[in-house]
Amino acid sequence: MTEPSQAEDPKAQLVKRKLEGVEIPLHKQVQARTATTYLEYVHLIHNAVPELNLTEIDTSVTFLKHQFSAPVLIDAMTGGAAPLGKINGNLAIAAEKLGLGMAVGSQRAGLVSDEAADSFVIARRNAPNAFLAANIGGAQLAKGFAIEGAKNLVDMIKADALIVHLNPLQELIQPEGEPVYKGVLSRIGELAQKIGVPVIVKEVGAGLSKEAALKLELAGASAVNVSGLGGTSWAGVEQIRAEERDVKNKATLGEIFWDWGIPTAAALLEVTKAVEIPVIGSGGLRNGLDIAKCIVLGATIGGMAWPMLKRAVISPEVLVKYVEELIGEIKGTMFLVGAKNVEELKKARYVLTGPLAEWRQQRSP
Ligand SMILES: Cc1cc2nc3c(=O)[nH]c(=O)nc-3n(C[C@H](O)[C@H](O)[C@H](O)COP(=O)(O)O)c2cc1C
User: Fold this and answer.
1) CA within 13 Å, CB half, 71
2) CATH no. for residue 274?
3) pLDDT tens digits, 262-309
4) 135 in a structural domain
5) Is residue 363 part of a domain?
6) What is the DSSP letter of 46?
């Protein structure tokens, strides 16, 4: 997700890190350890008299003026090196076939070579109609990445929106990280004014608070993605990279902050009440019930990254089947709460228990 600064061969190092950014989450345990999303503390109330048939349930939603067949976003992951194009290609096949949205991974690497650009371009080639979002790091913006450069990223994949990812936790722990965020809000504001497509601001697994979301809304973000704690841990990924490089202080930081962040359900409680722009729920969502719970908590759509990656590296068919099942699980939840469309799902009754209920009580002022 981040870009190098003082490496001897920045291009080669960037490609290596892009590959590791997929290989480590795929082959090592970098999910949250004891932390969870807190979605398990959201209890949807069962409706024994739903008065509708499963077949008549409509899961379609509108997000930033785009119609999705279901409230599912394939969240931002990859690109930037030739082998990663295959993954973006497969993710895009699923997004197109099922009428969903997709975000590519941090894209600055795509400006380095044609080969790297191709690994992003394939997404639009395979998904000519789907909602597709470009991606740039907030840290890059803070360091002065030009608006013109961001326009190139949007043009590269004819993107419908531009995502800015915020990853202060990752920058803190990454061996070559640059925890430089001063000025990021005004850069986001400038981008929102000049880029010509909606700007979506997201975290990458540590969650957005209501204060952060409000600032982003004021700065001009068209949507936010809470991407909270409970799923893929970027502190975990960087802990492993730091250990491999024998950077001891970073490895220790990674251990300490592995489970740092705002659980996804708590982030949604905070953010959906605070802002008027659409909110995406993501971070540790692992089935259709999780996505449905995010909608009930006020999200417009739910995003998933790691579960999509695991299937995308096998084949587009395996991924499509998985996402079809996922949509089936959302539909199943809607049936059981008696919601025939997503508008009704949003109004489903729920009870919050345990630490999530405590979080809500202490949310104010
Ligand atoms: C392999 C991988 C690579 C990722 N790369 C990016 C990225 O380049 N840009 C970004 O905005 N988020 C990136 N993310 C973060 C995800 O979009 C998402 O916010 C986070 O992983 C939480 O979702 P999950 O628990 O379903 O994986 C990445 C996630 C994974 C698993």
Assistant:
1) 33
2) 3.20.20.70
3) 999 999 999 999 999 999 999 999 999 999 999 999 999 999 999 999
4) yes
5) no
6) P
Residue from 75, 309, 323 to probe ligand 1 pocket by mutation (most atoms less than 8 Å from CB): 75
Instruction: Return the residue whose CA atom lies nearest to atom 23 of ligand 1.
Output: 283
The pLDDT mean for the chain works out to: 96
Report helix angle 210-219 to 264-274, nearest 10.
50
Q: How many domains does the chain have?
A: 1
pLDDT attached to residue 363: 56
**Amino acid (one-letter) located at 209:** S
45 CA from centroid of ligand 1 (Å) = 31
Q: Which atom of ligand 1 is nearest to the CA of 227?
A: 19
Residues 299-344 have pLDDT tens digits of 999 999 999 999 999 999 999 999 999 999 999 999 999 999 999 9
Ligand 1 midpoint to CA 62 (Å): 23
Q: How far is CA 244 from CA 27, 237, 334, in A?
A: 15, 11, 46
Residue-range definition of the domain harbouring residue 294: 10-357
- Measured CA to CA, the distance from residue 298 to residue 279 in angstroms comes to 7
Considering the domain boundaries, does residue 4 fall inside one?
Answer: no
Q: pLDDT (tens digit, 9 = 90+) per residue, 202-222?
A: 999 999 999 999 999 999 999
CA geometry: angle 103, 108, 110, nearest 5 deg: 85
- On whether residue 364 sits in a domain, the answer given is no
Question: What is the C-alpha separation between 70 and 326, in angstroms, rounded?
Answer: 10
